[in-house]
Amino acid sequence: MMRHVFNLNGIKGAIAAVAKLPDIAVQADVVSTLKGKLGLFNLDIFSSLLPVLAGLLNSKTERHAIVALEMLLDLIKIFGPVIHSTLSSSSPVGVDLQAEQRLQRCTRCFNHLQKIVQALQPLMMRSGQSAQLAQELNMSLQDLVVF
């Protein structure tokens, strides 16, 4: 079913469909398959996926948290510098529609990432791989979410 949605509506449509699914295990499976397709991501798709990843972090199932943490670590390596530089730069003079769109997307990502940082605290208290990944992600996000 998800392959059909992906073929019909692209990655953004697939992520929107995944976000509506009540079965968090299916969400984790789809996110797991997207890990191999990082080249398809842009800032807009990343911002659409963040709420799904935040939901997986709040799951009591270790595998769900690990899938979300691994995906977040990969995507933060790609988009973290863009978000940081966009939000920390001064506003351009004149009208620049692409810069305004990038600023809106970066702001949306930043807001989601602030919520994700809060969700990391309980994960860091656990033991095992999820705690280790949560600590690594927390370190990666420290510079990004603190302006």
Automatic annotation (TrEMBL):
GO biological process: microtubule depolymerization
GO cellular component, one term: katanin complex
Pfam family, one: Katanin_con80
Keyword set, alphabetical order: Cytoplasm, Cytoskeleton
Record InterPro entries: Katanin_C-terminal
Domain named Katanin p80 subunit C-terminal: residues: 2-140
Primary subcellular site in the record, as a coarse category: cytoplasm
Top-level taxon of origin: Eukaryota
GO molecular function list: microtubule binding
Subcellular location: Cytoplasm, Cytoskeleton
Protein name, per record: Katanin p80 subunit C-terminal domain-containing protein
Gene source species: Aegilops tauschii subsp. strangulata (Goatgrass)
